[in-house]
Design brief:
It comes from Aureimonas jatrophae. InterPro entries: AAA+_ATPase, ABC_transporter-like_ATP-bd, ABC_transporter-like_CS, FeS-cluster_ATPase_SufC, P-loop_NTPase. Belongs to the ABC transporter superfamily. Ycf16 family. This is Fe-S cluster assembly ATP-binding protein. GO terms for molecular function: ATP binding; ATP hydrolysis activity. By secondary structure, this protein is of the alpha/beta class. It has one domain: P-loop containing nucleotide triphosphate hydrolases (Rossmann fold), CATH 3.40.50.300. Helix content is 39%, strand content 28%. The protein is built from ten helices and twelve strands. The strands form three sheets. Strands 6-9-10-3-11-12 form a six-stranded mixed β-sheet, sandwiched between helices. It has a four-stranded antiparallel β-sheet with strand order 2-1-4-5. A two-stranded antiparallel sheet has the order 7-8. β9, α7 and β10 form a beta-alpha-beta unit. α6 runs parallel beside α7. It starts with a strand and ends with a helix. Bound molecules: adenosine-5'-diphosphate and magnesium ion (2 copies). The site of one magnesium ion has 5 residues, from α1. One magnesium ion (MG) binds next to loops.
Length: 251
């Protein structure tokens, strides 16, 4: 699904390299967790996979289903099934959440050569997905993320993901700002989408989320590189021992 090879990336138009030769493979159907201290480059990695323009890849490649996506813009990547749930979801005043979702879904369908959903079809889908995530219908009428609590913003991200049915889902610290009930709802939402032809990159600073979204692999990102890969027990080890031990071993 995803193969990142020797990825070096910097902030556009600067000499500030953030990723320094990152290697990562995510298989079809795999849930891979990326853990790492603040400032390691986790969000940068997620933005670069999604195609955000503020970053420049200077070396290496990102293969998605075996093909390089470096020349594709963010919209093309999204249309091909790459989805990023943001660490800090944007507030869009003046655009009702429902309108945003409908536009997002229909523009993606258009890019894939599929017809627009009728309004009743769309409403049925959005109500079902929102119900699963315990999202109130009233929330969908409010402008996207404006005045939403931390938990509501994260649930709105997962709702978008559920509707768009992506192949590669990147979740950047979806657990931050969630209390335990919201965390379980979000985790249930993610787990319901797990499947043989969908992969997840679950980025988190803490182990707690991984009690609910149990990963197939755990990768430790530190200073722009993956310094260790293991199974779910690696997350527990990090929780108990902190990052210092693993950073020391890698050095
Ligand atoms: P993480 O998500 O792991 O906390 P980030 O990807 O947000 O890490 O940041 C990695 C490093 O890159 C940090 O040192 C951060 O300060 C730096 N960085 C990220 N974006 C920018 C930017 N636009 N300008 C300057 N430094 C940046
Ligand atoms: Mg981050
Ligand atoms: Mg870094």
């Amino acid at each position: 699904m995803l193969e990142i090879k020797n990825l070096h990336a910097r902030i556009a138009d600067t000499d500030t390299e953030i990723l320094h030769g990152l290697d990562l493979v995510v298989e079809d159907g795999e849930v891979a967790a990326i853990m790492g201290p603040n400032g390691s480059g986790k969000s940068t990695l997620s933005y670069i996979i999604a195609g955000r323009e503020d970053y420049e890849v200077t070396e290496g490649d990102i293969l998605y289903n075996g093909e390089s996506i470096l020349e594709m813009d963010a919209a093309e990547r999204a249309a091909s099934g790459v989805f990023l749930a943001f660490q800090y979801p944007l507030e869009i005043p003046g655009v009702a959440t429902m309108t945003f979702l409908k536009t997002a879904l229909n523009s993606q369908r258009k890019a894939r050569g599929e017809g627009e959903l009728t309004t009743p079809d769309f409403m049925r889908r959005v109500k079902e997905a929102a119900g699963d995530l315990k999202i109130d219908a009233a929330m969908l009428k409010r402008p996207l993320n404006v005045g939403f609590s931390g938990g509501e913003k994260k649930r709105a991200e997962i709702l978008q993901m559920a509707l768009l049915e992506p192949k590669l889902c990147v979740l950047d610290e979806t657990d931050s700002g969630l209390d335990i009930d919201a965390l379980k709802i979000v985790a249930d939402g993610v787990n319901a989408l797990r499947g043989a032809d969908r992969s997840f990159l679950v980025i988190t600073h803490y182990q707690r989320l991984l009690d609910y979204i149990v990963p197939d692999k755990v990768h430790v990102l530190y200073k722009g590189r993956i310094i260790k890969t293991g199974d779910k027990d690696l997350a527990l080890q990090l929780e108990n021992e902190g990052y210092a031990q693993i950073i020391g071993e890698a050095a």
